[in-house]
Each structure stands twice: as C-alpha cells, then as structure tokens.
C-alpha cells in the first residue's frame, strides 16, 4: 500500500463522507422530485461549478478531436450508466441497501481485471467475490418477499456497479493526454445532456417547482457530489494505484446503511447486517494489501 500524502488522505476522507451521506440525501430528494429530473438538475447546477474550477486553476478545456471517441466510451461507462441507473433504482430500495449494492464495484472491478485485463487475482480475492455474491443473495432474498418491483432495483444497482467497474478499469488505462479535470468536465457535459433528454422524454408530465427539501438535496448533489466528489474520484483513479484509489469505498456502504437508518428511520433486518459484514469482508479481501514479500 503506497504512502498517501496529507492532501490525498484528506480527499479520501471527504470523498467517503460525501458519498456515504449522499444515499439518504438522494432517497429524500427523489421523494420530492422526479428521479431523472432530480439528477439532471443537479448536474445542470454542478456543471458551471466545474467550469469555474477549470478557469480558476487555468486548466484547458480543449480536447483533440481524435480523443472524442475514447472520451465518449469513458463517459458512458463511468457516468451515464451509473448516474442513470442508480437514480432510477433509488426509489425502489432503502438507501442503505442501495449503497451496499452500488459499492460492490471493487468486486466487479477485480473480476473484470482478472478476466479481461490480465490482472492477477489472488485466491483471497476470489473468496471476496464469493462473499459479495452471498451478500447480494441475502439482499435479493429479502426483497423477494416484498412487492413493488424491488428486485428490479437490485438488478439496476448491480448493473450500475458493473458499469462503473468497467469504466474504472478503462479510465486507469486511458492514454488521453488531458488533465483529469478536463476529462471530468466533458464527461459531465455528456452525462448532463443524456439525463436532460431522458428526463424530458419520460418525466415531463411530472415536472413541478422543487420544494425547499428538494432544493436542499439537489444543491447537495450539485456542489458536493458533482462539483467535488466526482472529480476527486477521477483524480484518485488516475494518480494512485488501484489499491489506493478504491480504498474509500470500503466504508461508504457501511456509512450509507447506518446514515439511512438514522436519517430515514429505515429498519435493518438480519439480512442487512449480514450483507454489510459480507460486503466489507469481500471488499477488504480485494483491496487490503498483502504482506510484502521478501
């Protein structure tokens, strides 16, 4: 495990806090505003903040035309699929359970790396994949006893996690010679356009003026999630080894579960507690550094 600088450690801690708390925030927001429109409006507000950041830091906006194709692929898997699927799944699931499923990403990333990118996966990592599968099974089992399409929410969250994992693998291997902020800005532009189109096509009859609670959750997402956390994640992925860049996800699902129980009064069943333990075990088995060889 590489030694992190103070700046990197602070970014990791803030990223974990923002993303962990955002699950009950999103759950609250989509109860007061249509989901796709909620995400699209958050990005519309967050996008100028990203642009302002590039101007203040004197980061170039320009990207050579030959890299537009690879950028579209990165944006599709890293942001479009993730943001669209999770915001549709959030109304179907308790926020804590959605957080657990969404942050199975390191497990998918480890499996994809071993199967398609020639990454060596040690035996303990395969045990971690098995533990994650057990946690997902418990969550799905708990949902099968209920109505309301919640198994659909589980499937959407798992697909979002798999897409994010593939996008992360591609982002680590990209050869686009552009600053991380530049890539983050144009991927956000692309995602904002897709979400605005989907919201217009699917939710226009449900549009209304956001109430104060909706505005609060939208601004939280615009400023902290889109303006800070998304860029911080891309920065860590491109500048640190995989082990360090994914360290923060170990605590995010746990924070999401307990913040949802505290904030929204979500009742935790034995399946949730067991799934949390299995997910943490699984993620730790993949991310925790092995003892250095002599």
UniProtKB/TrEMBL annotation:
Q: Which compartment or compartments is the protein found in? A: Membrane
Q: Which SUPFAM superfamilies match?
A: Multidrug resistance efflux transporter EmrE (SSF103481)
| Pfam families associated with the record | EamA
The chain positions of domain EamA read: 11-140, 152-287
User: What are the record keywords, sorted?
Assistant: Membrane, Transmembrane, Transmembrane helix
TM region(s), chain numbering: 36-57, 69-92, 98-118, 125-141, 153-171, 183-201, 213-236, 243-264, 270-288
Q: Which InterPro entries does this entry report, sorted A to Z?
A: AA-Vitamin_Transporters, EamA_dom, EmrE-like
**Is the keyword Nucleotide-binding in the record?**
no
Q: How does it sit in the membrane?
A: Multi-pass membrane protein
Q: Which family does it belong to?
A: Belongs to the EamA transporter family.
Indicate what this protein is called per its UniProt record: EamA family transporter
